[in-house]
Design goal:
With about 110 residues, this protein is of the alpha+beta class. Helices cover about 20% and strands about 40% of the residues. The protein is built from two helices and eight strands, in the order H-E-H-E-E-E-E-E-E-E. It has helices at about 5-25, 30-35; strands spanning about 25, 40-45, 50-55, 60-65, 75-80, 85-90, 95-100, 100-105. The longest helix has 18 residues, at about 5-25. The relative contact order is 0.18.
């Protein structure tokens, strides 16, 4: 029997994003300047807008290892437009994550 758990993982991801956006959304380059100060923030790569999933930051390294881009047909990006927020695009609709919450944003 095959189960598609992607929707459950996406909801978990959205909840995690929402929690982190309460602290703030910052670019990776800013994060590496003071990781302790920005612990708990949502981190993104300013060069491509992708949300960072995994990274290696220590005295010797400051590398992005992976992004949240592993869901087929879902584009996840940080948008800077009259504020800063995460846009999870499903094609005909999207989910916006900002200020500790997420909500569906339909557009035509």
């Amino acid at each position: 029997m095959f189960h598609d758990y992607a929707p459950v993982f996406i909801i978990g991801m959205l909840n995690s994003f929402a929690e982190k956006t309460e602290n703030g959304i910052i670019d990776f380059d800013t994060y590496v300047t003071d990781p302790e100060k920005y612990d708990g923030f949502l981190i993104y790569d300013k060069s491509n807008g992708k949300v960072v999933c995994d990274m290696c930051v220590d005295e010797l390294h400051s590398d992005i290892v992976d992004y949240f881009d592993f869901f087929d047909g879902v584009d996840i990006r940080v948008i800077e437009d009259d504020g800063i927020f995460v846009d999870v695009d499903f094609g005909r609709s999207s989910i916006v994550v900002e200020n500790g919450r997420w909500y569906v944003s339909n557009f035509d």
